[in-house]
Specification:
The chain is mainly beta and 169 residues long. The chain has one helix and twelve strands. The strands form four sheets. The chain has a four-stranded antiparallel β-sheet, with no helix packed on it. Strands 4-12-9-8 form a four-stranded mixed β-sheet, with no helix packed on it. A two-stranded antiparallel sheet has the order 1-2. The chain is globular, with a radius of gyration of 23 Å.
Length: 169
């Protein structure tokens, strides 16, 4: 009996050392909301794979950071009076002012969406919503604040950005 116990102890101790991992050392994995996480290794070797570099997301794809080179829209040019309390009120422009990068809110299984609902000479109305979770699906109760991109027909220039929320889609 003592021999069997010693054998089991030795077998379980050795079994964990050669267990395969989901990713090679130094690889980067993409989290659902667009964030990047990297596994660390003591030192890279010639056998380690090349780590892919993150690329900018096209309009409509949420990410956690504002695209490099974006310009903040002044608070005086943002009308967020229709947003619920605590909802982000941050907007940037990129691509010569033809893309609005907006800090949105999403949670659980939902994903933030944005749509330029109205574009006039004075203002641009952006409807912010969230995808609806499938019924019967278990979801986490977290809140995330991704940056979503909304394409405009013409550069924003001096127009006001009006932010509104719409029901989940």
């Amino acid at each position: 009996m003592v021999g069997t116990g010693a054998f089991l102890l030795m077998a379980t101790a050795c079994a964990g050392q050669d267990m395969p991992t989901n990713q090679p050392r130094g690889a980067v994995s993409t989290a659902p909301a667009g964030s990047l996480s990297a596994s660390t290794s003591a030192s890279p070797s010639a056998s380690d794979p090349v780590v892919p570099q993150p690329t900018p997301n096209p309009p409509g794809k949420p990410r956690l950071t504002v695209p490099e080179g974006s310009t903040p829209v002044p608070a005086a040019k943002i009308d967020a009076s229709a947003l619920p309390a605590g909802f982000p009120r941050e907007v940037w422009t990129s691509n010569g002012g033809t893309i609005l990068d907006i800090r949105a809110q999403e949670g659980g299984c939902g994903h933030a969406l944005g749509e330029a609902a109205e574009q006039t000479a004075d203002h641009v109305v952006v409807n912010l919503s969230e995808t609806k979770a499938q019924t019967g699906q278990m979801c986490t109760m977290d809140i995330r604040y991704p940056v979503i991109s909304v394409a405009l027909a013409a550069p924003l220039d001096q127009r006001t950005v009006v932010l509104k929320t719409t029901p989940p889609k």
